[in-house]
Amino acid sequence: MSNYLQPAMKMPSIKVKDNENNLADVSARQTDLPWKMIVIYRGKHCPLCTKQLNALAKMNDKFKDAGVEIAAVSGDSHAQLTEHLNDLHVNFPLYSGLSLAQMTDLGLYISEPRSEKETDHPFAEPAIFVINEHDQIQILDKSNAPFSRPDLNDLLAGIEFIRENDYPIRGTLTH
């Protein structure tokens, strides 16, 4: 079995920088909502990430109604996050400074930039961690490429189904 985070494990603390450049824990809840969704995005250089984050912002109220707080984090610097805010219309917390060690601990796929025009650091490929009221990983989705991401409406419907039907955490059988 992998040492990486698995479904049903407790979500660890992830200390990064908030958009004011203060140290913060992206996994800590900022509201009284029982669930939290942490979106790992590639960074400012990725137009698909910008599209996903803006789409999430439009759905944020629906996620809140389902009991889910949203936050997003990348390995970008604070300056890159600040610049990215010009293209983002988000209404949930964004964080920067996810380190290589943290990316590795989370079991994320990590890529080198294709050139310095893309970005100036290795970055995590997209991932989503949905954390239940017991701080366990209820849903884990990670990709090794920017083109494979869950449909946000399907994800929301799945979360609502899980919460309404006491649906168990899946994918926990080891062999």
UniProtKB/TrEMBL annotation:
Residues 5-164 form the Thioredoxin domain. SUPFAM superfamilies: Thioredoxin-like (SSF52833). Gene3D superfamilies: Glutaredoxin (3.40.30.10). This is Redoxin family protein.
